[in-house]
Amino acid sequence: MEWEFESLPPWIVATVGVQKSEYPWIWQFTPYANGITMGHYYDTARVVSDEASNSPQNIYFDLTVWKFYGDCDYSGKINLLDISYLIRYLYHGGPAPRPALP
Q: Quick one: which H or E segment has residue 28?
């Protein structure tokens, strides 16, 4: 069955892991939040097919962009413990600030 994405949120990159003619389809959605300010974003993508009786189908997305600068121990608070954490990392071989980059 032939199908396509009619619309995708501007902050989503979609890749299909197999050929569209194969089933089951494996989709990978990657958020691309570069340039987006902190907050919650909701949007819908549509998958359409002229051959399907239940077309279109909606896929719902929810993106939360969050970065709390200075929260080295990832506790949700900025306090003296973050300074200690950073000093241990920089000068005493402690763990890196979190969240760690992949």
A: strand 27-31
Please tell me the distance from the alpha carbon of residue 8 to that of residue 43, in angstroms, as a whole number. 8
Q: Taking the alpha carbons of 35, 44, 41, 19 in that order, is the dihedral positive or negative? A: negative
Contact between 59 and 47 (Cβ < 8 Å)? yes
pTM over 0.70: no
Question: Given the structure tokens 């979609």, which residue do they identify?
Answer: 14
According to DSSP, residue 102 is labeled -
Q: What is the pLDDT of residues 3-20, one digit of tens each?
A: 788 888 888 887 765 566
Identify whether the C-beta of residue 56 lies closer than 8 Å to the C-beta of residue 37: no
Q: H or E stretch including 89?
A: helix 80-92
Which tokens belong to 59? 């896929």
